[in-house]
Specification:
Fumarate Reductase Cytochrome B subunit, 5 helices
Length: about 190
């Protein structure tokens, strides 16, 4: 339905298929965790490297990243086992394509980011001390070159993920302002 039809007829009251309760909970839980983890990662950049204060904070970031990575895998497995609802018929082709690509890129970044961070940590002399208590055995040796590649991947992916999140939020805002029922599909009943 066109924007002029929306203006003429008022807000849409479509019965659109909803995501499952599990998918909704995982979506919002991961969203909140991602916002926190990204903000915390950027906060880490304000702590000078080589200072004693940095290590415990970095280990909390790494530990949270591991748990978030597992949660993201659970979300992806859920999505593979439970098809998401079809797009509402009134969505234009470009909206469907933009949504599919954004979701694909979001999932890709959500996989690449914790994985690259974890791999980088396994090639650093510090490794991972899970929540500053349990030293996880590294499966790589200290290699500044390998660390640099995966850490750069981790950092670049964080900026790409933020850009995709902003794009995703703008799309959600557009649908919310149109009151077309799309946002309600991923909201709590």
């Amino acid at each position: 339905m066109s924007a002029t039809a929306l203006e003429k007829n008022g807000p849409l009251q479509h019965d659109t298929a909803r995501y499952s309760s599990v998918a909704v909970v995982l979506h919002w839980l991961i969203a909140l965790c991602l916002f926190g983890q990204i903000a915390f990662g950027w906060f880490l950049e304000t702590i000078p490297k080589g200072t004693p204060l940095r290590g415990p904070y970095v280990n909390v970031h790494k530990s949270t990243g591991i748990l978030l990575g597992v949660l993201i895998l659970v979300r992806m497995l859920w999505r593979l086992a439970h098809r998401p609802p079809e797009y509402p018929a009134f969505l234009a082709l470009w909206e469907r394509v933009a949504s599919r690509w954004t979701q694909f890129l979001l999932y890709t970044c959500m996989l690449v980011m914790p994985l690259s961070g974890y791999i980088a940590s396994n090639y650093s002399k510090y490794g991972v001390k899970f929540f500053n208590t349990i030293a996880l055995p590294p499966w790589g040796s200290n290699s500044p070159q390998i660390y640099a590649v995966f850490n750069t991947t981790h950092v670049v992916t964080s900026y790409l993920l933020v850009a995709l999140i902003v794009f995703h939020l703008l799309g959600a805002l557009r649908h919310a302002l149109r009151r077309d029922g799309v946002v309600a599909r991923m909201w709590f009943k």
